# Entry
Amino acid sequence: MIFEFIPINKTLKNVIQEFDCGTDKYNSFLKEDAFDWMANGYATTYVAVDSDENNDGKISKIYAYASVNATGLLGKNLDKKKYLSCAEIRLFAVAKALRGDEAVDIDGVRYSYKVFQALMQELYHIATSTIGFCAVTLNSNDEGLNLYTKFGFVHSQEYLLPEDEEKLDIEDCTPLVFSFLGEDSLYKLFE
# Structure
């Protein structure tokens, strides 16, 4: 299966209501708050669907979602004044059916990795065609940390984090960053 991310408003409400990632907080965000966040400019929510179903106009299932907004990170070493324009993945959730050791594609790659790779490919496309940014940042809970670091995200301790802003109450998160400028970043995106 090939995953494709599309804006949530291109999906039927009944398909959105069927999404289940196994965590009530993330499920309810998608079903109750995602459209409000988009309307108020907090973040745009994209949903992962089967590319063939999308081409046929018959989307039956959402496999994951991501709420994304624009941000930036400033380097802590102010001598360099290093600034990264970024997209921030504020929320990312994968359907329960695509998680776990048994949820692998025919090539042996986990579906959760493939759907996250599809998201990163979409963000790269946005960065190179719509609005420029050179990195992606996120705050990882323990459950997603392995996926993100395996993909190539690194701790963002060399950057000052944006001020606390209204977000879902997610405790004990690790701030991470992925730069499109890295030597192996395109490999991770399109391997």
Remarks:
- The two ends are 16 Å apart (CA to CA).
- Residues 22 and 111 are 16 Å apart (CA to CA).
- The first helix runs from residue 13 to 17.
